[in-house]
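Aim 2 progress. For Molybdopterin-dependent oxidoreductase, the working sequence is reproduced below.
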Amino acid sequence: MQDLPATEVRTTCPYCGVGCGVLARVAADGNVTVRGDTDHPANFGRLCSKGSALGETTSLEGRLLVPEIGGRETSWDEALDLVARRFSETIEKHGPDSVAFYISGQLLTEDYYVANKLMKGFIGSANIDTNSRLCMASSVAGHRRAFGEDIVPGTYEDLDQADLVVLTGSNTAWCHPILYQRLLAAREARGTKIVVIDPRRTATAEECDLHLAVDPGTDVLLFNGLLAHLDIAGVIDRNFVDSSTTGFAEALSVASAEASSPGAVAAGCGLAEADVRLLYELFAATSRTVTVYSQGVNQSAHGTDKVNAIINCHLATGRIGQPGMGPFSVTGQPNAMGGREVGGLANQLAAHMNFDRPEDVERVERFWSAPAMARQAGLKAVDMFRAAGDGRAKALWVMGTNPAVSMPDSARVRTALKSCEFVVVSDVTRTDTTRYADVLLPAAAWGEKGGTVTNSERRMSRQRPFLPVPGNARADWRIICDVAQRMGFGDAFTYDGPLEIFREHARLSAFENHGDRLFDIGALAEIADAEYEHFPPRHWPQASGEPCAERLLVDGRFPTPDGRARFVAVRQEGVALPVDAKRPIALNSGRLRDQWHTMTRTGRVPRLMANVPAPTLEIAPLDAHRRGLRDGDLAHISSRYGFARARVTVSDNQKPGTAFLPMHWSGHFAANAGAGSLATPLSDPFSGQPELKNVPVRIEREAIAWTGVLMTRRELRPTGFVHWTRHPVDGGWVYELCGTETPDQGILLSRRLLDGSPRNQFMEYTDRRGLTYRAAALDPAGALAEALLVAPPGQLPPRDWLVSLLGAREPLAAGQRMALLSGRSPVPMPSIGRVICSCFNVGEHQIAAAVTRGAASLEDIGQQLRAGTNCGSCRSEIRTLLDAHRLQAAE
Ligand SMILES: Nc1nc2c(c(=O)[nH]1)N[C@H]1C(S)=C(S)[C@@H](COP(=O)(O)OP(=O)(O)OC[C@H]3O[C@@H](n4cnc5c(=O)[nH]c(N)nc54)[C@H](O)[C@@H]3O)O[C@H]1N2
Ligand SMILES: Nc1nc2c(c(=O)[nH]1)N[C@H]1C(S)=C(S)[C@@H](COP(=O)(O)OP(=O)(O)OC[C@H]3O[C@@H](n4cnc5c(=O)[nH]c(N)nc54)[C@H](O)[C@@H]3O)O[C@H]1N2
Ligand code: SF4
Ligand SMILES: [Mo]
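Predicted structure tokens for this construct:
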């Protein structure tokens, strides 16, 4: 690794599981800038839109800096004493299973390790589960069924070396962007074929060689058909199957029975037979094949079966553990993999040990000298919140996750949080979940704390601090140890920093491990201070005295008792909840390019909000037409669990009968736009992972009678509106409002949001019929402080100019003041349209103009406008725009 200037710190991106290396620099004025770390083997210097904007997320605005009890600021001593006392008393009175922790794949390995140790070894319950239950649990369960241990065999290099990459239920272009770009680069170099299996035509699907828009939930059938085809095509690796696996005959017979021909599969999956054949023939003919899978596979009531249906095809062809081949479950969160290493799920033990083996339980007990070792699995996420709601779990500690938004049936989760006797939340900012906290603990954020994370390819990297810890915030590991000590477990929690925890974690991985657990990082058990500081990114395992194995499962030996991998005979089951006449649309949910989960960080960055500033429901033209829905209309979406509202985008990327709502919007950014309120808690029977991708809904048009927009420097949480959303802009926030009330009532409602401060100079205008209203307030210096426009739908004046004035914060000239209430700049100001490239703020109108001037390719656009030349996240969208213009020109 090259030496860095003293002002730059090497760390790792806190977002997705690609795990990119980041170099952070703090300027004298405190501003943080970042660039990609060219030495990091995950990204070789590249960063996606979210990673490039990391410097803009470190401001202290909105940060929690002081502990609170019942909304009152307090000292750490008082807060920690209370948490320890309430947990201890509850355990004493009601037993260890009356308390629970709900934690996160965004914690560092060291934080995760001590939380798990406290609950499973010292409190004596396994009621610790993590948001990875919503994320990776089906992959974990599928790996364990097939391999005997939760092993991801491959590395990112396999994507460089593959001839065929099948992306299943993965919007890689948006969710693992740097990995995706690596794949596109490999395609340039070697002609890799890319197949996408996804009901939606995603940005990823736009660029692939073959897109199979399967009906939701039918992946098992598709892969069973593939297994049957591989047999017929004669490409089964008999040697491998005979010497390294068990259960092939049964898996094949079940698969062949239900997926008898490509035609039968096509009919069952809602696909064209020719496409199914094409996939099968490509797969059969290409030995270097990697199947990447993500939430379209995991987040399903049959997710574990989906995982095994995929793995079956790789085992049958012996395509596992070899360069350019293998099943590849890509992790979502930055430390989803690290959480699995420390056993953060309720049904796991630390260091890849398990409750179903008593010798494992005793081993961990001995290693920790645990006074109260948990002996059986605890409550999984959905059940944990049920227990919190019905009084079985009386004290709950939530760390680094926002379940009030991200859990399915989230209205019920919110009720549970409200009724639970004692709720502790550790977070870096206020969220929908912190509203229910009896005790609120301010955690140190990315850039302020250090430790390790493990990415999708089992590569451990350091996060390193480069900013001082603000206010009274504390690192999560320390908060957990502080509480453990106050609960009387001091001796086992006296670490003086993450390094000591890391060493213990490494020691446990090697403890009585005679090669039977592949997760072994014993070589790092005595890692010196300087070495941990320096810590180049590296794969596990790192067993003591053995060379580091980059790729796993290479020799046909598996960590099962008989050393063989297991085929699992899986059948295509019906979806958890089928659509019916009352709720005829299957609602899917997932991610957008520039947002991270519940937007607590990315939602504050103007350029990350510019591409999609408000939640929209994507719906197929036919379904929209039937409901009289057009672009921009407000839809009311209801499921058996709750309802949401969102503006409509009519899109033929959606398969008829399906719709898509992003998962990101919380009550902080919109009224009732959460996908979690609609989602079903029905879960996979093996993994406990809920079906987040498919819930039957009814969609109706809301008759909007007025719309409004408030541009303001202030951060508000409007109440009483049918619908509002907000997004940040330079200098403040833009609130979009609308309602079903009469326009004059809409005006009354909206005016309540205005800042009535007498210091401001205020001007307003209402038309004679009382249908439109405009107001503006200037601060004492004469700069625009806020503006409100209300009008019937479709009649709002332009707002680009007003928004730019908010950012400029400069006193207005007389002509500008006169023009304020019209919303139109006195000098012409062309609108750039919806922002496509968030790195260089390039909008769709500018791209259209460039095309008119002759730009014909991505490269031309890059040369003329710079769009797409930095992080590359917008390249597929630009390509789509170019295609659309080309089509238009041809018509
Ligand atoms: N921009 C961004 N990137 C992220 C995140 C983020 O919040 N924002 N979060 C990170 C995290 S934690 C995760 S878990 C990953 C998730 O990464 P992905 O899994 O790639 O993302 P999702 O959008 O959740 O879902 C993937 C796709 O599954 C499809 N799908 C739905 N149902 C089915 C089905 O039945 N079969 C198949 N084959 N596909 C189906 C959806 O249409 C969707 O396009 O992203 C990580 N990266
Ligand atoms: N409908 C639907 N729901 C979903 C999904 C879906 O696809 N559809 N996907 C699911 C998946 S895969 C996931 S991973 C989850 C994600 O869901 P969540 O985990 O709830 O989402 P985040 O917004 O990432 O929450 C992380 C929280 O940790 C806080 N935080 C940040 N840094 C720190 C820190 O250092 N310490 C502490 N203590 N807190 C910190 C953030 O402010 C934030 O509140 O959502 C799940 N829910
Ligand atoms: S791909 Fe983007 S979000 Fe994921 S780790 Fe890399 S920079 Fe961060
Ligand atoms: Mo996730």
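The domain at 68-135+336-495 is CATH 3.40.50.740 (Rossmann fold). This observation will guide construct design in the next reporting period.
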